Amino acid sequence: MHPQLQHAYQVEMAAAIDQYFTDNLKPAFTHLERAHILGQSFPIAHAQAHWWMLKVGWKRRDLIEVFGQIPRIIGALLFSKIWVPVGNTGGARVPPFRSMPISEDLRSLLEKYGPGSKA
């Protein structure tokens, strides 16, 4: 992962974890979705975002999220290098193979530093 992309991913993950530990679960999940978009082409980063989504689901007592994240964690570890649905936010209520629009700030980072970029 390019250092600039890794930094942006880590910023989103740190914000998510901070929000998680202060029980601000909605903003935590939003940061996890952003981290997921940035890290989904990298197996460990991708799986880490899904793991934390599972943890948020557990804290919310949201069984759809908890059970939806388990196959996504496995898929992240096995298939991230092969193909990912660009822009997919990773939550269990989003079809796992659907590509989605990407916010301009994340799109810019991915175009400059993502897989296939010239950076």
Write up what this structure looks like:
This protein has five helices and no strands. It is mostly helical. It has one domain (3-113). 66% of the residues lie in helices and 0% in strands. The protein starts with a helix and ends in a 6-residue tail after the last helix. The chain has helices at residues 3-21, 25-39, 43-60, 63-79, 104-113. It is globular and about 45 Å long.
Q: Could you tell me the strand content as a percent range?
A: under 5%
Give the number of domains.
1
Helix content: 55-70%
Average pLDDT across residues? 96
Q: How many whole angstroms does the radius of gyration measure? A: 13 Å
Which segments are poorly predicted (pLDDT under 50) over 5 or more consecutive residues? none
Q: Could you give a short account of the major beta sheet? A: none
Q: Can you count the helices?
A: 5
Distance between the termini: 11 Å
The gist of it:
This protein has helices at residues 3-21, 25-39, 43-60, 63-79, 104-113. By secondary structure, the chain is mainly α.
Key words describing this protein structure:
globular; mainly alpha; 119 residues; 0% strand; single chain; 5 helices
What topology does this entry show?
Blueprint: H1 3-21, H2 25-39, H3 43-60, H4 63-79, H5 104-113
Helix pairs in contact: 1-2, 1-3, 2-3, 3-4
